[in-house]
Design goal:
Elements: H1 2-25, H2 45-56, H3 58-61, H4 74-79, H5 81-88, H6 104-115
Helix pairs in contact: 2-6, 5-6
Length: about 120
Amino acid sequence: MKKTNSIFFALGSVAILTLFLPSGCSKAKAPPPLPEVICTSTISFSQQVAPMIEENCSGCHGSGAGTSPVLSNYTEISENADKIIHALRGTPQLMPEGGPALADSLIQQFQCWLQQGKMNN
């Protein structure tokens, strides 16, 4: 009887650990998938993406503004493009912070630029 109780205790302990341990050790959840965007034209970094970032993001994310990530040139913007698109879509937090969401057409342009390979054009 003692041996049976020990086995049930051991199995119960393992079951409890498998229920609770993964939740405490798991990595952050991946952001939800982006809605599909159909791109009908090539998006220009210099003509469309850079001006959008300058106008809507550089107040907090420009050089010397103090907020990370800095988004003041092609390299910084392209390296953070996945984070930017999710923030523009409101996951995990809507950007620009404290302001209204950008027009969906601007968000779609940025997403098209991302889908097209983040060209420096």
